[in-house]
Specification:
There is one protein chain. The chain has 198 residues and is α+β, with helices and mostly antiparallel strands. The protein has a single domain, classed as Immunoglobulin-like (Sandwich). The chain has three helices and twelve strands. It starts with a helix and ends with a strand.
Amino acid sequence: MELAALIVGILSLISVAYFLYDRYNGEIEIEIDLENVFLAPTFGLNKDFDGCMSLVFCALKFINGTKSDRTIIKVELEFMINGETKIVDSKYVKTFALSEKETNCVCFPNSKGNKNICIMSWKDLKEQIHNNETISPEAVMYASSLYLLSPIKEKDINEIDKKLHLIITDSRGRKYKHKFILSERYYSLYEQGTFVKF
């Protein structure tokens, strides 16, 4: 009886040790293509949000640096305005096909007569999360995402704190927080009249 209890105790300790090792060893990392990030006002999603700024990441790379399979269930953006912290989830962006070869396209219109911005191979983050895509150890998941920075509108654009965070939550409940610096160059497309149309 004592031997059985000892074995159960040892197995329990092994299970706890493995859980802690698996939970805290490594993390999911993010690489951001900084050349493909921009700010733009949003229209058509909901009249209450018309004119609110969106932050668009055209190319994100999620790298599983842990020792086990991971499934991302949420990637939130944390930002601050006037001392108040806001956390928002990404929005689903509908894509279309320009041709048989050019699929999953997203077009951002321009209000000043300049050329619209069309992005090919948009891999919507929300859709990939919905499909429960698993990332194996050392494997990579590519994604694109859009965050609505409500209630920030065009007049508030300079009030955004330049330090933002992307917060990943995986299916095991672990969170990974990555800092991102908002550069002045991300405002350029907004100044040229580019906007997000839903």
